[in-house]
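INFO batch 0412 | record 1 of 1 | parsing
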Amino acid sequence: MAAHPTETPSNLPAGTPGGAPDDPGIPGVPGTPGTPGAAGASDGRPGTERTGRAQGPLRLGRRVFGPGELVVMAIVNRTPDSFFDRGATYGEAEALAAVDSAVEQGAGIIDIGGVKAAPGGEVSAAEELRRVGGFVAAVRARHADVVISVDTWRAEVGRVVASEGADLLNDAWGGVDPELAEVAAQFGTGLVCTHAGHLPPRTRPHRMTYDDVVADIVTTTVGLAERAVALGVRPDAVLVDPGHDFGKNSRHSLEATRRLPELAATGWPVLVAMSNKDFVGEALDAGVDERLEGTLAATALSAWLGARVFRAHQVTATIGTLRMVAAIRGDADLAVARRGVV
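INFO prediction complete | emitting tokens
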């Protein structure tokens, strides 16, 4: 079992990546104390009253993220064929440099992946482990306090990376391997419970239909989260992810975004993985390299609506966006105050 003897709260302003863990929450963000996520609360707009469970701290590895914090999860893919970086961090040296850069920029979590989500050549468990196994240990040796997440659906991969220091298992395929949650319980790691439309891994959605996509997201992710806790995963180490574009067309992903308060109201911390995805591209008719503005708009809206963790390729831009949301909410002070005061 990876040992995490201490918890390190950050000393940055609350509501920013790495902000204070005992923060009372961003005003108006669903699910944080004193905000619409609390039972019967409203953000003041007609039709926004709802009930829900209050959010609590998220404890991963040595870190404690308070309910009002907005946390960036930086993507580092050890794959030769990822849709966005096209293999830029496939090599170990390049991947380690990317980790170092993301940590320096302020990412609270590093998400390491060894298999791209899209269809393609088969990647065996052995090959996935070759890509991510020893790499997790190398990252842990360089960065003792950063939260290390591994994007995998396989229990056998999860077992190895957890033993090497991973703090979080990011299951993007909806519990397709039920033993992965057992691994998280055994090693004391966190677990991401994702809605993937009940599809097998690396499957593109085709004419997916739902009576109510958000109801299906809530039912599925909450069920996975409750099962994980029943198996022994700590409740404060479980996140839920609506799974943008996984088992969904772009209209489904947009609906999941605007109805995020319904997922946040469950009380489970919400992770969103929207960075440069196809629903952004189809909304704007933008290619993969032209989706930053759309991604940041979706990020800001998701933060406003209750998401807490943001999986991102462009760390600096995402952190800036989230800090602006925190400032608008009144949860973070100005970085510098000159205008009208000096």
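INFO post-check: The radius of gyration is 19 Å.
INFO record closed
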